[in-house]
Amino acid sequence: MECKEKRTLLKEIEKVRKKMFQAYERNESYDHLVKISQRLDTLLNKFEYQYKCK
What we know:
GO terms for molecular function: protein dimerization activity. By secondary structure, the chain is mainly alpha-helical. The chain has helices at 3-25, 30-53. It has a domain at 20-47. The protein has 2 helices and no strands. The longest helix is centred in the C-terminal third of the chain and has 24 residues, at 30-53.
């Protein structure tokens, strides 16, 4: 994975992580939290897979 791609993916992970925390603080619905959590899991798995494969 190129450094630029890695930074972009890490920025996106951080953005979704912050969104998750803000949704939790606002007591948003469980379904909404699950949706954000699934997106975060997808990004983390993508990062882990690409990082290990290179």
